[in-house]
Specification:
By secondary structure, the chain is of the alpha+beta class. The protein has helices at 8-30, 35-52; strands at residues 58-62, 79-82, 91-98, 104-121, 136-142, 161-162, 177-178, 188-194, 199-206, 215-220, 226-233, 236-239. The longest helix has 23 residues, at 8-30. InterPro entries: Flagellar_FlgA, FlgA_N, SAF, SAF_FlgA. Its main location: periplasm.
Length: 241
């Protein structure tokens, strides 16, 4: 009995059917990589990077993977990587890669918010205001965007002078304040002048405000001569020779 001869088109169809069947069986045997494992691997990577920076007050948010995304089960540990410098207080795109048995690669957006207990204003503070204990309080805030620096203890801000208006509830930033003025314009001060052979102490009047280390103009009370000196302590100015 002579067998029926298949046409080339029929042979191609049968070949494709066998190929897809084998592929489907292979995928079925491999299974899919659980999304929870991928996300946990990314979270572990981010936490490890934060620990290097001693950054423990962070909130990590991962973008969830699409439920329809099917990735074959990896037969070895997932490779986690980043194509750019790790950002400890902002957005990162963290890569996840698998090499065997089937190669795949995805990127997961991760947002990191850094929190710290900082000094905030309990009153609106206008320019020139000297900060007192009634003006500030400690509060836990996100500080990633505060590039001007911030204070973590109330004692650090008491006596500082506001140089830029600060709104109620805002973080007190270092670049919005000046150090406490320990010499004020018109204040009677002690003038000191010294050399290797002698030391002269007299009185004078400050012609400028200033803090420790500032150079200000002063007037000698006896000679009425105007000179410059460095503030070395509250009410004490060392004359520049």
């Amino acid at each position: 009995m002579t067998g029926k001869i298949m046409t080339p088109r029929q042979m191609i169809k049968i070949g494709l059917f066998v190929l897809f069947s084998l592929f489907g069986n292979a995928v079925a045997q491999e299974g899919y990589q659980p999304h929870s494992q991928i996300e946990q691997a990314v979270r572990d990577y981010v936490e490890k990077e934060l620990n290097k920076l001693a950054n423990s007050n962070s909130e990590i948010t991962l973008s969830r993977l699409n439920n329809r995304l099917k990735l074959s089960q990896c037969s070895e540990p997932l490779e986690i990587f980043s194509l750019s410098k790790f950002n400890p207080a902002g957005r990162n795109n963290i890569g996840v890669r698998c090499h065997t048995p089937r190669f795949w690669k995805i990127f997961i957006p991760v947002t990191i918010k850094f929190y710290s207990t900082v000094v905030v204003a309990t009153n609106p503070l206008s320019r020139g205001t000297t900060i007192t204990t009634g003006d500030v309080v400690l509060d836990r805030r996100q500080i990633a965007n505060h590039l001007g620096g911030y204070f973590t203890t109330i004692d650090d801000v008491i006596g500082r002078e506001v140089r830029q208006p600060i709104r109620l509830g805002n973080i007190i930033q270092q670049n919005a304040t000046d150090a406490e003025k320990i010499v004020k314009k018109g204040q009677l001060i002690t003038l000191r002048s010294s050399s290797s052979r002698f030391k002269v102490i007299t009185s004078g009047k400050a012609l400028n405000n200033g803090t420790l280390g500032d150079i200000i103009r002063v007037q000698n009370s006896k000679s009425e001569r105007i000179v410059e000196g460095t503030i070395v302590a509250p009410g004490i100015v060392e004359i520049l020779n």
